[in-house]
Amino acid sequence: MNVAKRTFDAVIVGAGGAGLRAALQLSEAGLKTAVLTKVFPTRSHTVAAQGGVAASLGNSTEDNWHWHMYDTVKGSDWLGDQDAIEFMCKKANEVVIELEHYGMPFDRTDNGKIYQRPFGGHSMNYGQAPVMRSCAAADRTGHAMLHALYQRNVRANTQFFVEWMALDLIRDADGDVLGVTAMEMETGEVSIFHAKATIFATGGAGRIYYSSTNAFINTGDGVGMAARAGIPLEDMEFWQFHPTGVAGAGVLITEGVRGEGGILRNAQGERFMERYAPNLKDLASRDVVSRAMTTEINEGRGCGPDKDHVLLDITHLAPDTIMKRLPGIREIAIQFAGVDPIKAPIPVVPTCHYQMGGIPTNYKGQVVVPKDGNPNSPVAGFYAAGECACASVHGANRLGTNSLLDLLVFGKSAGETVVEDFQSGQLKLKPLPADAADVSLARLARLDGQTNGESVFDVGLEMRRTMQKHAGVFRFDNLLKEGVQKIGEVAERAKRTQIADKSKVWNVARMEALELDNLIEVARATMVSAEARKESRGAHVRDDAPDTAENPNGRDDANWLKHTLWYSEGNRLDYKPVNLKPLSDDVEPIALAKRTY
Amino acid sequence: MTINRGRVRWQCRRALLELDLVFTRFLERHFDRLTDDQLADLDDLLRCDDYDIWAWVNGSKACENDRWKEMIGLLRQG
Predict the structure, then answer these.
(1) Which residues of A touch B48 (CB under 8 A)?
(2) pTM score, two decimals?
(3) A134 shares its domain with A35
(4) Which of A65, A72, A484, A592 has the lowest CB atom count within 10 Å?
(5) Which CATH number do you get for residue A76?
(6) Coil, strand or helix: which one is A310?
(7) What's the ipTM?
């Protein structure tokens, strides 16, 4: 098959916040830059980010990057790399002010500065009191950010390939990255994008879980492509969950509902939080509530025919209160749970929200892998930023508003690194191997030729259910062990997916089959990494790693203060040290301590 | 110009989960029965901002474009 070839200085996969920020850096420096995206840029999932972007501007309360760094390291449960965290917190003001100059409509203080609001986990003076650090544009921060970045890219002549799906990473015999293969959805044709630099900014893979707040596009395409190409995935056991997503749908029910008096009940109608958190009850912290819900479900006290959820009850509140204070929630319950919360409780489950792990990178956005004794050896020509990457700034748990900051700082940093390497002549257009497109063509031929195969929907559903049950918010050794077995079986089935419609043009079924190939890599990585990590840390909480004097919160620094690396080939694990040393002498390392709030 | 149904179906993939869920239901129940004129209206609606579409669908904001109202109605009723 003849495969068209296009050549660029750089190719970026993904046009959410990280991809657009990186593209801007390249295009403004005059590099010929292609951005591939499977949906129109302003329909990327960055749009859904509401909370804001963290920066220690100190406009609303006193603040500085040292405090922000401390909060982020502590939030990460010390799994974050302190060099990358220092870099991010130091750069925050710069990238936010740049956005302001791009026309981003931030909320303002009376004297015209960017208004900042408080957010969970962010503090002043090393945990002493809440700080106002989040810069927001009403509740549309991600949306406003994406539009500002897109407009700026149009001005800078970034070349967009909209509704193109990247298929596979191209590496040569040296392991260097030479670009990607991609399919144009309008024609079904495969092309090679040959480039000196390839940047992945493809977002997270929250769709591996049955209950997920993520939009359908979040299928971890870059993470899957990297894994198939032999790049290990870092810390994939760490996923952030929100306790109250609508069961079966995933749409978030804000904490405000419990703040207004909402009560969680099990199948017996019992207010079970009284047993788990006698004082705070339903208003206990997210992880406590999520764990309690999971325990109720696992012990057979879940609701519904499958006993797979609990109920969030606000029927005791006055209808007026619900209509006035929680109108959006009533609409969500009616639309997605089919219940009017004035009359009946809302079915809810802990719901996957954010991927902390990903493609291993350093603070420069270079993808790094173990090689010749160096655990962080850069892969020539390959960079990543945003949720698909693991820098690692979020470690075992991300703070709210640090995700938008992550994509700005590391999108820009990856872009800067590429521009520097390009201008110094270090980046070369290496010759394409003759078989550059073979892997992709073989995948497509397999899919088209499959007979007696599996339904993409059925295999995807089995994957999501397996992940939810076996590697959910609260983890159990026996369930994880079974999960490793089960997800392996699902992965075997995923190799035999079949589609009825073989047409080339706008074939959505083919796209979904290709997306499943990416999701399944992430699912395997998550399950295997989670089973192996025999401690509790941040978002990875195991029933058999309890809170003791020796291991506070179940965290076992003696054995597990290290990053997981999972390799797709051989389903193999490796580990590398956490960088506890900051980037500069401006700050002392933040010493290990118990994470309490 | 004929509108490619596969393209419109793909463009029902949105940035917000709320809309993905609404469109999934819509694709199952209504999409195959849309006339060419209705398909053109949908194609047009899909160019709008996701937060606007969601506000029209959940009723928190009234849609002022007559051309989109029928589609909004179908998206709302599920």
Answers:
(1) none
(2) 0.96
(3) yes
(4) A592
(5) 3.50.50.60
(6) strand
(7) 0.97
